[in-house]
Amino acid sequence: MILCTPYRLPLTPGTARHTSDYVTTDDTNPFIRLRGRSVMALVLAPEAPLATWLTALNAQVARAPTFFDGRPVLMDLGGLPANTPDVAGFLRALEGRGIRIIGTEGAHPSWPGIEAWGRPLPASGKAGRPITVPDETHATPAPAAGGEVNSLVIEQPVRSGQCVVFEKGDVTILGSIGSGAEVIAGGSIHVYGALRGRAIAGLAGNAKARIFCRRMEAELVVIDGVYQTADDMPAALIGKAAQAWLDGDQMKMTALDSTDTGDANGQSPGRNIRQGRRR
After folding, report:
1. Which residue segment(s) compose the domain that 46 sits in?
2. The whole model's pTM is what?
3. Alpha-carbon span 169 to 153, nearest angstrom
4. Segment 215-224, tens digit of pLDDT
5. Which of the listed residues 99, 117, 135 is the one where a domain comes to its end?
6. Shared-domain flag, residues 221 and 168
7. Which residues contact 18 (CB under 8 A, 6 or more apart)?
């Protein structure tokens, strides 16, 4: 999250005034406040021919029907030839599949109807990290009392460079999370193997979420915005079965085996990144 100091911008031009030692009673111009904010969006980069690409997308959506639910999507159209027909119709077809497009980049100005999809966004200059879409047909969702899925079970390891995101509840990994991999959950994260990558729990503000693993070797653990890196973790917990949870704004960690402790109290303080976020 980017935090910017509010900047006051006058709505109407005014005459500059010299500062003085007294408070004036003159009317002042109204001001608006500008703040910076960053959001995470998925980037889709279609390739020609579009019909073949749509067929592949349909197969992927069939494997993970809820993956695009509520997620903002940026369309990178820079890989399409300038003579590609009916790009606007192609974007409408994506929205018909439940993909929420918030903007485009790399669009050719000659494409008719492309302006309806908003002002083109500037290229970031930095490629995003590839995200692996979980195969929900091979995962085992656990339905809540009302029938809504509130947990996700991944039956294979999460390998380096992969990212699993499930914002609706808990994620259980039956294997390990490799170094450079990332698992993000709205609830708790359970890892039945080694946790060597990044585990981010309580994404939607769930301070009661926990992280459990069979072998703690994590690069980063986060619960509701409070985090610890590998350098912060108690040396006695490395390689041990452990859990992490929040006590207020402090992260605590302890070994699952009561004979193993992280420090004298089996706990260690976490850093709170919410101090750098605007609430």
Report:
1. 42-117
2. 0.50
3. 11
4. 999 999 999 8
5. 117
6. yes
7. none
